[in-house]
Design goal:
Length: 287
């Protein structure tokens, strides 16, 4: 059976090693910047040995995941001795395979295996990982192996080419990080009528959950509701007037997002061309 190793015993390394082990993979070795972290990970994975030196992982395992922070990957890979029969895989969403070039030059196969998921802590990552999608940059045998791993983790996967990675990652930033930014904007607006951030978040979570369920069940564009889906010009006008008066720092954002929401409303088919034109004009000019 293929022997897996991990260099970097943080959030992603812990989640991948624990879940792959639980799904029948053989995880034999881990090293990290500190031995404590390596031991902590090894303690969660039966049969996995913690090593002091990353080179020991490169020797003990056939497929080595480099799960250090992105900026450390190239340096870690360049320092180690690799050879034929080894596969080196990083988990960055934005870096391509060029950072693994020293391993490839030494005869190893290389790949990228990015869990399209948000991991706030190792424990939460272990829970969230199954069912996540994976962005895989690899060819041939490595692609087959990594696709099998994604499936073993109940995940869908997409094959990415070198030029795809940065936009793929920017998409994740929109869908995950900037969603949080929008929640923060909403909580700031709640502050205008005296509700603190905790109360606002508590009230908004069921709305967020409902939105997500609609995205999942009916998909784009039919999951869209609200004034732009209805072509409700009066409401949009009122929103903009109130923002201009009480929270002008969010007016440009509101208008930009509104303009990008119009194509979704058009796709849903509840607004006609005249309604689209009127909303576009109102959101573009801000009046
Ligand atoms: N977190 C996410 O949401 C997420 C999602 C998808 C993909 N990823 C990717 O997963 C990779 C790891 O991210 P992460 O969030 O798991 O980072 P992390 O929690 O900060 O963990 C990184 C680990 O790497 C170790 N490390 C740092 N420098 C090292 C070096 N020079 N040599 C050996 N080990 C080193 C650290 O060691 P010590 O603990 O020993 O100090 C730490 O345990 C990144 O490529 C990231 O892009 C992360």
């Amino acid at each position: 059976m293929l022997r897996l190793g991990f260099i970097g015993a943080g959030t992603a390394g812990t989640a991948l090693s624990v879940k792959l082990s639980q799904r029948g993979y053989l995880v034999v070795a881990v090293a990290s910047r500190t031995f404590d972290s390596a031991q902590r990970l090894a303690g969660k994975v039966p049969g996995c040995q913690a090593y002091e030196m990353p080179q020991q992982v490169a020797e003990a395992a056939e497929l080595v995941f480099i799960t250090t922070p992105d900026d450390a990957i190239a340096g870690v890979v360049a320092k180690l001795r690799w050879g034929a029969g080894k596969t080196v895989v990083h988990c960055s969403g934005v870096a391509s395979l060029d950072i693994l070039e020293p391993a490839r030059q030494a005869g190893a196969q290389v790949g990228g295996f990015h869990p399209l998921q948000t991991f706030a802590s190792a424990q939460q990552a272990i829970q969230n990982l199954p069912g996540s999608a994976f962005g895989i940059e690899a060819e041939g045998e490595v692609l087959d192996r990594l696709a099998e791993m994604a499936q073993a983790l109940d995940g869908d996967w997409v094959q990415l080419q070198e030029g795809d990675k940065v936009l793929y990652h920017a998409a994740a930033v929109f869908a995950c990080n900037y969603w949080i930014t929008l929640i923060r904007v909403a909580t700031e607006l709640w502050g205008h009528f005296g509700a603190d951030s905790a109360k606002a978040v508590k009230a908004l979570v069921p709305l967020l959950r409902g939105t997500l369920l609609n995205v999942e069940s009916v998909g784009l564009p039919n999951c869209l509701s609200g004034p732009i889906a209805r072509g409700d010009l009066g409401t949009i006008e009122k929103h903009m007037a109130a923002l201009k008066k009480d929270a002008p720092e969010f007016l440009t954002l509101y208008r930009e997002l509104g303009l990008h929401t119009i194509p979704v409303a058009l796709g849903k088919g509840r607004v006609d061309d005249a309604g689209v034109e009127a909303m576009s004009k109102m959101l573009t000019t801000g009046a």
